[in-house]
Write a structure and sequence with these properties.
2 domains, Rhomboid_protease_S54, Rhomboid-like_sf, 10 helices, 54% helix, 3-stranded antiparallel beta sheet, 7 strands, two-stranded antiparallel sheet, Rhomboid-like fold, mainly alpha
Length: 305
């Protein structure tokens, strides 16, 4: 009689001899299947199963912790890319800047809106169904020799986005942060539409003012030392007042108020299984409110024709 074979092989590679067991499922695994564990080795299947069962680390506001401010990088990249596009093709500004209502002539000239206008003029702006302007204007900036600030317009905005955005993104996580940024940009444009619908505006300032408000709300909710934060907020509000004569204060204020409202919902949502739902619901309600306000204003303007 032949002796019983004591040869053991890897459960994933039956032709490979193995004498090591997975510490989790107790099956034999070969060197190619071994994965380092806290004690011994585990097989690839057990490692994957363990990864699924491990709870992802979250910030105090429900966002996933990430060491890389990816969304801030992308937003800066999009603004710079749009700026390069403006330099190559200046007509992009007229086509995509925020404008509630305006008129354009057959020669391409732009004219101030009026309820009654000659037949050769055509309507442009949000009142002509160009709703995208409510967001695209937030990614455009003054040309190098344009307006009061010129190229400093995009430089100051991108430096501010870099400094504030990284801190806010680290606390909120990427999804919540992106929603905050876009809603703040939209809120700034909507207030421009409501108060100054005939003024063309552009720039990321409204969204950045929203991030500034978010920074203050988050710091207060976390119990941070508010002395420095309050000085920052006072400087932001002072700049809003000082720059009112040179920039669109409506866009700045709209972004500030919207960003503050969104972050209040993020910060004070219940810390249980309902948190994500409450936060998303608050963003949805605010989005509906902004769209409704814009729609009502457009209806008022078009109804006056």
């Amino acid at each position: 009689m032949e002796p019983e074979s004591t040869l053991t092989t890897c459960y994933r590679h039956p032709k490979v001899e193995s004498h090591v067991r997975c510490t989790r499922c107790d099956r034999f695994i070969c060197p190619g299947c071994m994965r380092e564990a806290a004690v011994g080795h585990q097989c690839p299947e057990c490692v994957r199963e363990g990864a699924r069962s491990v709870r992802q680390a979250r910030t105090a506001f429900g966002g996933r912790i990430s060491a890389v401010p990816l969304v801030t990088y992308v937003l800066i990249g999009l603004n710079v890319l749009a700026y390069v596009g403006e330099l190559v093709r200046p007509a992009i500004v007229d086509r995509f800047e925020m404008l509630g209502a305006g008129l354009v002539g057959p020669d391409g000239g732009h004219y101030l809106w009026q309820a009654s206008y000659p037949a050769e003029l055509h309507v442009e702006g949000v009142v002509d169904g160009e709703w995208y302007r409510l967001l695209t204007g937030a990614f455009l900036h003054l040309p190098p020799t344009g307006g009061t600030f010129g190229i400093l317009h995009i430089v100051m905005n991108m430096v501010s986005l870099w400094n504030i955005g990284r801190m806010v993104e680290a606390q909120l996580g990427r999804v919540r942060y992106l929603a905050l940024y876009l809603l703040s940009a939209l809120g700034g444009s909507v207030l421009v539409l409501l108060i100054a619908p005939y003024d063309p505006t552009l720039g990321a300032s409204g969204a950045i003012f929203g991030l500034g408000a978010a920074y203050w709300v988050l710091a207060r909710r976390l119990g941070a030392d508010m002395a420095q934060v309050n000085r920052f907020m006072a400087g932001l509000l002072l700049w809003l007042v000082i720059s009112a004569a040179m920039t669109s204060w409506e866009g700045h204020l709209g972004g500030l108020l919207t960003g503050g409202a969104v972050t209040l919902a993020y910060a004070y949502a219940p810390r249980d299984g309902r948190r994500a739902l409450v936060q998303a619901g608050a963003c949805a309600v605010l989005l509906i409110l902004l769209v409704a306000c814009a729609w009502a204003k457009v209806t008022e303007l078009t109804g006056a024709r």
